[in-house]
Design a protein that fits this description.
The chain has 355 residues and is an alpha/beta fold. Helices cover 45% and strands 13% of the residues. It has helices at residues 23-27, 46-49, 70-83, 96-108, 183-202, 208-225, 233-249, 256-267, 271-279, 287-299, 314-325, 328-335, 339-342, 345-353; strands at 12-15, 33-39, 58-62, 87-94, 120-121, 130-135, 149-152, 157-162, 170-173. It binds zinc ion. Zinc ion binds at residues 192, 196, 257, 271.
């Protein structure tokens, strides 16, 4: 095994307003049937009319109230197999959750066993069926990353299928698709890119390519969130590219993401808002970005709920701590190998109490 990292990029993407119309030409090439996973949000929307579904194709609307679970992937995979044997293309149209589902199902159509068997690093053995990603929200970077994050409820873990096979073969980046996103959600999700990249740039595990992509993504986020309207046409274009660069960078995170994961596991908050709730109390660790984050919220008139964790049961505080502190790599990246003496249990719980 070589010790050198051999990096894969997304082979094809279209970036243009209205480019969802190109989908019909792209899927025409496939002999078998196509499976579409579409966010339920678009069920009664004009976007649905742009889906070039043919007779044997399968359309599944996905409810994103919960983040994707391994059990859901197995269930969806069975449904695809019940539709026929020759699925040759999987299309995901939606936010991060739907894109992760599309990637995971595509992989499971060509690999034996259950989705949970492939949570980890480079465990997927065979390439999945052709994957097309069409993001309708910008920020998680899931369109560009080599993972699909899944929650395994029985084992209590949230972990991705990290593999080159978990990357899309084709992306359609159409900024018109983010026009209808609710403002708060647009902000929370967009900040995922900003936070991811600033954690990476403040950490000790660094690399010139990751730094360059992260710096550009942050610059675009600043232009978007410090402007008068983060959702103007030009800003939605910029945000889509910031998210793509952030996903390509996929740098190492720091203090925000581990605590955010704790909030998701212990209290069920979605990733975007959980990140923002955590950033809102981390002035001590990221003083410069904290001020900038507050400015961005004010400028875009976005608010965050408060008092969510001030009076919880001791057991919940324990769970918040244990599901955050297990993220050793990011915490080491941010605070060094002795992170447990800096971010003690007492200290972390006192931080959570301010959320
Ligand atoms: Zn994130």
């Amino acid at each position: 095994m070589t010790e050198f990292k051999n990096i894969k990029n997304i082979p094809k993407y279209i970036f243009e307003k209205g480019s969802i119309s190109s989908l019909s030409d792209i899927v025409k090439e496939f002999d078998g049937f196509v499976v579409y996973f579409i966010d339920k949000f678009f069920q009664d929307n004009d976007v649905k009319k742009k889906i070039p579904a043919r007779r044997n194709d399968l359309i599944q609307f996905i409810d994103t109230a919960d983040e994707p679970k391994t059990s859901l992937i197995d269930k969806l995979c069975d449904q695809v197999k019940a539709n026929g044997e020759n699925c040759t293309c999987v299309v995901g149209l939606g936010g991060g959750s739907v894109l992760y589902i599309a990637k995971a199902v595509s992989n499971m159509l060509t690999n034996k066993g259950k989705a949970e068997d492939y949570q980890g690093w480079d465990l997927v053995e065979n390439p999945g069926v052709y994957k097309i990603g069409i993001p309708t929200l910008s920020g998680t970077g899931s369109e560009a990353s080599r993972t699909c994050v899944l929650t395994n409820v029985e084992k209590g873990i949230k972990l991705g299928m990290n593999s080159d096979y978990s990357m899309f073969d084709q992306l359609i980046l159409d900024p018109d698709l983010t026009k209808t996103v609710p403002r708060d959600q647009y902000f929370y999700t967009g900040m995922d890119t900003y936070l991811h990249c600033m954690e990476s740039l403040n950490g000790s595990y660094r690399n010139v390519v990751i730094d360059a992509l992260s710096q550009k993504a942050i610059e675009l986020c600043r232009e978007v969130f410090l402007s008068d309207d983060m959702m103007s046409e030009a800003n939605r274009e910029k945000m889509m590219i910031a998210s793509y660069f952030g996903g390509c960078a996929a740098g190492n995170v720091g203090v925000v993401h581990p605590l955010s994961a704790g909030l998701s596991i212990a209290l069920g908050y979605h990733h975007g808002i959980a990140n923002c709730l955590v950033m809102n109390i981390l002035e001590e660790y990221y003083p410069y970005e904290y001020v900038e984050f507050k400015d961005m919220m004010e400028k875009q008139k976005v608010s965050l709920p408060t008092g969510l964790c001030s009076k919880l049961d001791q057991k919940i505080y324990e769970k918040l701590y244990s599901s955050s502190i297990i993220h050793e790599k990011p915490l080491t990246n941010a605070l060094g190998a002795e992170f447990k003496t800096i971010l003690t249990k007492e200290k972390m719980i006192s931080l959570f109490k301010r959320i």
